[in-house]
Amino acid sequence: MAEKRRSTTTQVTEGAAQAVLRKAVAPELSSEEEKVMRMRLGATPPRTARLERAVEGDEELEIELRAIEIEAFLKWKAHLASRAAPKVETRAAPAPKPGHSRTKEKIVRALRKLS
Predict the structure, then answer these.
(1) Quick count: other Cβ atoms within 10 Å of Cβ 29?
(2) Are 47 and 63 found together in one domain?
(3) pLDDT at 68 (0 to 100)
């Protein structure tokens, strides 16, 4: 006696699909299907997910990519350190003297008449 499989269809909203993809890798999807769904929905992978290596097997290119990653990381750390460091005040140029304005002159004349 063969068992009959029942299939059901469900509708998933875009928001629900994005939420599932953001939480973790979807095990029921192949890696290619998951990539397509992420691109289509704009869902980023979880922060804890490891990034794929685009190039495997080409040792020279892998070394070059690692060097670029390290350089970018060091620049990022230096940027964070410069933002956290206290700012040193430099001697600022003197502020320019305000020029005469017509409104100011009217006010001064009105005050002189009152006194």
Answers:
(1) 15
(2) no
(3) 92
